[in-house]
Amino acid sequence: MKKTLSVIDVVALIVGIVVGVGIFKTPSLVAANTGSAGSFLLTWVIGGVISLVGALCYAELATAYPHPGGEYHYLTRAFGQKLGFLFAWARMTVIQTGSIAMLSFVLGDYLSKVFSLGRHSPALYGATGIIVLTVINIIGIREGKNAQNLLTAAKIAGLLLVAIGGIFFSNPQPVVEQSHSPAQAIGLAMIFVLLTYGGWNEAAYISAELRDVGKGMVRSLVLGIAIITTIYILVNWVYIHVLGIASMGRSDAVAFDAMARIAGPYGATMTTVLIVISALGALNATIITGARTNYALGAEFRLFRFLGKWNEGAGTPVNALIAQGIISLLLVMLGSITMKGFATMVEYTAPIFWLFFFLATLSIIVLRRKEPQTKRPFVVPGYPVTPLLFCVICIYMFVSSIQYTGIGALTGIVVFLAGIPFFLLSRQNT
């Protein structure tokens, strides 16, 4: 596996995944649960700090164990082959493919506003996006990363344009502070904030392809989260500046409403283009990282050995990309049938995602005890308090993701548990 990625490439990947579509939707939900401009902005600062804490934990794992399997590799070393297999199964059937399908529905929803293809227009556009971006990454990692860098640059430029427009070309709304929100409402607001910050951990899956991983991974994660936090705080400040905290809390499309105030009828068109670019960037980055776990699964389990083939010329796991694309398309079909594509995929992925986030962070402590001789180019500061703190956050998010979701979460859990018989079958074929 060649060291083909630079720090800039990894930062573009992190920003491309995290700054997806949440920043255009969740701020209104956060505003409704905070009630004041100060509390609202503080939640986004806290979200950045929490993400940085998690990133420091992952930096130790990624630099000590650079591997295309990422979390799969850490979990297998720390807890054994069974849990590693179940995580890889969950990534292949729930977490990553569900995220790909979710992002494809956002892409389809907004492209359908420009030109509708009929009743199933979002699914058709979304499926086309998955196919095109998967083919680009099958051609080669160079093409995939170039597309990612271009989409991320366009996304940041668009968000900065929104910020500049809000600062210089709009009339500020009066600050109207509401009563303090109860702790439960603040907690709910943080769920939406951390959902919007989610995805930086995907950098672990390309650690084996990063040049000078010891220094490069730490720099990539810290710089990526610093850029993301700055963008989020700036854009959310513009939302408050243009709409006011009360109007934000009542808005169903906060980005549309803000841009309509800034640029009139052209604002909605500009916002649609920006969201499409953001969805494409997040979709491409998720496709790149997701296939790496499938590759690691195939490399270690004979039943899935067709996934464990690496195309050295292209620098990609071609079979793993194809399998991931097929499963994602099946989930798009499911979402299209239920007619609640995006919401269904959010519910489908959330509980399993936070469960394994907790276990991956806990593996830092386990591996420190189990493999003390392993060289660790970066050591998480404040150990063991830092990883334990992040574990508590993950447990809170896991419980909340079950409490606030419906049938989609149950379906995701059932599909995850379906991996157990496949593990038993794979052991017989080892």
Q: What would you note in describing this structure?
A:
- With 430 residues, this protein is an all-alpha fold.
- It is 76% helix and 0% strand.
- It contains 17 helices and no strands.
- The chain has helices at residues 7-18, 26-34, 37-64, 71-79, 81-114, 121-139, 141-168, 183-197, 213-243, 245-250, 254-263, 265-300, 318-338, 341-370, 385-403, 407-417, 419-428.
- The longest helix has 36 residues, at 265-300.
- It is globular and about 60 Å long.
- The model has no long low-confidence stretch (mean pLDDT 84).
The N- and C-terminal alpha carbons lie at a distance of: 24 Å
Order of helices and strands: HHHHHHHHHHHHHHHHH
Unreliable spans: none
Characterize the overall form: globular
Helix percent reads over 70%
Total of DSSP H or I helical runs spanning 4+ residues: 17
- Give the biggest beta sheet: none
> Whole-number radius of gyration?
21 Å
Helix and strand composition category: mainly alpha
Tell how many strands the DSSP assignment holds.
0
Oligomeric nature of the chains: single chain
Strand content: under 5%
What is the mean pLDDT? 84
